[in-house]
Specification:
The complex is a heterodimer of chains A (399) and B (446). Chain A is of the alpha/beta class. Chain A folds into 2 domains: 288 residues, 7-stranded beta/alpha barrel, CATH 3.20.110; 80 residues. Chain A is built from 16 helices and 9 strands. In chain A, the strands form 2 sheets. In chain A, strands 1, 2, 3, 8 and 9 form a 5-stranded parallel sheet that branches. The longest helix of chain A has 29 residues. Chain B has 2 domains: 267 residues, Rossmann fold (3-Layer(aba) Sandwich), CATH 3.40.50.2000; 154 residues, Glycogen Phosphorylase B (Rossmann fold). The two termini of chain B are 20 Å apart. Classes of the chains: A alpha/beta (399), B alpha/beta (446).
Chain lengths: 399, 446
């Protein structure tokens, strides 16, 4: 049996204004409310609302046999409430079907794991509380920002009550001869690991509308055929897991409706379920479904799902990114010592990983992706506004 | 007395100190009763007949083309920006004139001007030097060629007693008009290629500068520092050189009261972020001062070809949020940043004059300026340090941070001093130079 595990990432950052030195101390808002509202409304119309409606229909049609998982960040929930409450309601309706698993992550979609373990744990607990409050849901599966993972993460997550599994990227240099189609354990066998099958996930997320791709256009038949073939290698009857992890904005936003992405999704579950040995599962079910001894897998270095490198270089490579993030965590510490809740909230909104992604100066194809997602003209501009915002925050703290 | 003046910058068309200097100077000259026909690199072929002081702000304009002039007279502009747009002027230097409008400059400067038998060998050499080097495919060179060709027409259409050309971009124009009209030429050196390039620079520009100064009747240098450069690097006859320091007249609507943005000490760099201005020295001193005074903030105000490099370097030095970039600032924003600053630094590698420190001092900001600058010749209440002596810059800034009262007093003394450095005095020197040049010229004609 091969179980398809869909997990969709739902996230929106609070983007900064073009915040200049002369804005400091003037009471000018740091965050670009207008832009954030516009983007949330646009993405809700193009992606969240139509895709939620489609998934709700599919879940009902297949009576429990089609299921998906979501990770929804705290900043996304806050923006739903501010700019698109109907979107939050539509997510709630999906969760109410019982066919949706909600994952845990950091409230602010931050890189705190790399810089400040206490802050990381705080943000994970904040997110757990929010999921409880909004969806009456206690997540059992954790995914760190951008699927960033390293052995140490499993130790931290293991200590939090309720988490039994973690999702991350199926990075070739870690997997080597092993297949991402099986459930694994972390390095000391305390927690389950599920690994993204990036070839097929990225066919949908990145290549679906790419006319230069030899497999274009991607049809449901073709895709299900590829999935079916994956089961041929398993002769011992072990249950497999095909982890298709992607940004939820893939549907209608990264891949426009005109590309046929919604039609693809509309027909995909039925086509899968025609095959008896194919089905859908939630991440939290993988452990009980694995009818074999789960091998342990060690990740000494941090990995992620970003760019060709699948490491942290999208956020933490150049000097601007390092200086910016180090300055932030130093300031965050000072704010915590002072106990100023209002400033702490702002600092945490500034911890969202997107801010550092905008400062990425890698070239070529990945650079293009960065540019597509950035509200600024250049990494340098993104850095300048961010550092100015940190100066504002620090001046406020000194006052 | 009527002057035909060529310059590349004049407000609102302005990108640096040249525009500011020309504005102050022309205003003060008008106040002395001197009439000026001003020619700028405008899209339309026009000149600005400046007759009274207020004309520097209203910029009355006359088109050389009669049809265009009568059309212009009938037009009603809803605002000044619209009128400037019609003439082809904006704050951005890109709009001087469109290159697409320029017919290829095919060395159509008439050869007869320097090939006639009466022309001396020396004169012929100077012309060759200029024409042979005013070549290239850069936009700027094409613009200078166009400006020069227009000057040929202008020379015959206007009446004037003397020609005054500012910086190399207008020297070919000035030379040509002198040749055609037989009127004396004064060239004004605001900066040489050695200053701008912070090194050897562009050979063609050196040659054009040399030709212009050689051909001119008088050369005005904005400082002793520049005069020395002209003598040593360009070998220009000392007798022709006059020094007229720039000045700074405080705008009437300026507000000087302090308005802090930051609680800690603020050290300001204000100017183009380019090699000449020593921005890398500023970064180095910031790094060292922050070791002793981590609460200080260094502000780099302006833009330039080294912005990106400086930004990246400041990040790699891990200067946190203590080294900030403002990007381009307009005049009002410059005022705000000045009012928020405690210490102004000008670490220029080579600064012919440097008006910006005078502006900073007018705001009562303690100033530390490069010894390799003209402005250091005219102010006493400022610290003067060799641009390369980073340790001394650091010590000085630390000292000022640690002794705020001393620093403040220095700032106030500086303010009083700068208030006495007025354009009127500089203009009077220029007027005398005009008169002497004319007298000499008339004597020679006889």
């Amino acid at each position: 049996m091969l179980n398809i595990i869909f997990y969709f990432q739902v996230h929106q950052p609070f983007r900064l204004r073009h915040y200049n030195v002369l804005d400091i101390g003037q009471g000018t808002p740091i965050f670009d409310d207008k832009l954030n509202c516009e983007i949330m409304k646009k993405v809700s119309q193009k992606c969240y609302l139509p895709t939620n409606a489609l998934l709700l229909k599919l879940i009902k049609e297949h009576e429990g046999r089609f299921k998906v998982a979501f990770s929804i960040t705290g900043t996304a929930i806050e923006q739903f409430k501010l700019y698109s409450p109907e979107t939050l309601d539509s997510f709630k309706a999906l969760v109410d079907t019982g066919c949706v698993e909600i994952l845990g992550e950091t409230y602010y979609h931050s890189l705190s794991f790399m810089y400040d373990s206490n802050e990381f744990l705080d943000q994970v607990h904040m997110h757990r509380d929010l999921m409880k409050q909004e969806f009456s849901y206690s997540p059992e599966t954790f995914r760190n920002t951008e699927l960033i993972y390293q052995d140490r993460l499993s130790d931290l997550i293991y200590e939090i009550e309720g988490f039994k599994s973690i999702l991350t990227e199926g990075v070739d240099r870690i997997l080597q001869w092993r297949s991402p189609l099986y459930a694994y354990k972390n390095y000391n066998k305390r927690i389950n690991l599920l690994l993204k099958y990036y070839q097929l996930a990225d066919d949908i997320a990145f290549r679906f509308s790419n006319r230069d791709w030899p497999e274009y256009p991607l049809t449901v038949n073709k895709f299900v055929n590829w999935i079916d073939k994956l089961t041929l290698n398993e002769s011992k009857g072990r249950n497999q897991f095909l982890n298709l992890f992607m940004d939820y904005e893939t549907f209608g936003e990264h891949q426009w409706a005109e590309s046929g992405i919604f039609d693809f999704m509309r027909h995909f579950p039925a086509e899968v379920l025609k095959h008896e040995h194919l089905g859908f599962a939630h991440p939290k079910e993988a452990s009980s479904l694995s009818n074999y001894q789960q091998e342990s897998m060690s990740f000494p270095e941090a990995v992620s799902w970003a760019d060709e490198e699948r490491d942290l270089s999208a956020w933490l490579e150049n000097d601007m990114q390092h200086n910016a993030i180090e300055t932030l965590y130093e300031l965050l510490e000072k704010i915590k010592t002072r106990g100023d809740e209002k400033l702490l909230t702002i600092a945490r909104l500034l911890s969202t990983s997107d801010h550092f992604y905008y400062m990425c100066s890698k070239y070529f194809q990945d650079g293009d992706v960065h540019k597509y997602f950035s509200p600024y003209d250049s990494p340098d501009q993104a850095y300048i506004y961010y550092i100015n915002a940190l100066a504002e925050l620090e001046e406020k703290l000194l006052r | 007395m009527k002057i035909l003046m060529f310059t590349w910058e004049f407000p609102p068309l302005i990108s640096g100190g040249l525009g500011m200097a020309c504005y102050g100077m022309v205003k003060a000259l008008l106040n002395l009763g001197i009439k000026i026909d001003l020619v700028l690199p405008t899209r339309e072929m026009v000149y600005f007949p400046l007759r009274q002081v207020s004309d520097v702000d209203t910029l009355p304009v006359i088109f050389f083309d009669k049809a265009k002039q009568s059309k212009y007279e009938k037009l009603l502009f809803s605002n000044e920006a619209q009128r400037m747009e019609h003439i082809g002027i904006s704050e951005s230097p890109e709009s001087y004139f469109q290159l697409a409008d320029i017919k290829r400059y095919s060395i159509s400067l008439k050869k007869e001007y320097w090939l006639s038998e009466r022309v001396s060998e020396e004169e012929r050499d100077v012309w060759r030097e200029m024409t042979n080097h005013l070549v290239g495919d850069e936009d700027l060179i094409h613009k200078v060629q166009e400006f020069t060709l227009r000057a040929e027409k202008i020379a015959k259409l206007l009446e004037y007693d003397l020609i005054h050309a500012h910086d190399w971009l207008t020297y070919p124009a000035g030379m040509l008009v002198r040749k055609i009209s037989n009127k004396p030429l004064v060239v004004h050196i605001h900066a040489t290629e050695f200053d701008r390039a912070g090194g050897p620079g562009d050979e063609r520009v050196h040659k054009i500068e040399h030709a212009g100064m050689t051909y001119a009747d008088k050369v005005i240098a904005v400082s002793k520092y520049t005069a020395q450069m002209i003598m040593s690097r360009y070998r220009i006859d000392t007798a022709k050189i006059r020094i007229v320091h720039n000045a700074f007249t405080v705008p009437e609507d300026a507000v000087f009261t302090k308005e802090r943005i930051f609680q800690g000490p603020v050290i300001l760099f204000l100017g183009r972020i380019t090699l000449q201005k020593g921005p890398d020295y500023f970064l180095e001193m910031a790094q060292k001062v922050l070791e002793t005074h981590p609460d200080a903030r260094f502000i780099m105000a302006g833009t330039g070809d080294m912005s990106r490099k400086l930004l990246r370097s400041s990040a790699s030095l891990k200067l946190k949020n203590r080294f900030l970039f403002t990007g381009f600032l307009n005049r009002k924003q410059v005022e705000r940043i000045l009012r928020a600053s405690d210490i102004y630094v000008l670490p220029s590698v080579s600064e012919p004059f440097g008006i910006s420190p005078l502006e900073a001092m007018a705001y009562g900001i303690t100033s530390v300026i490069s010894k390799q600058s003209g402005v250091s010749e005219v102010v006493n209440h400022a610290f003067k340090i060799d641009f390369w002596d980073t340790d001394l810059w650091v010590q000085t800034i630390n000292h000022l941070i640690e002794n705020p009262e001393k620093s403040q007093k220095m700032g106030i003394d500086g303010m009083h001093e700068v208030n006495r450095i007025q354009w009127d005095e500089a203009a009077e020197k220029i007027r005398q130079l005009y008169s002497a040049t004319l007298a000499e010229y008339i004597r020679k004609q006889k």
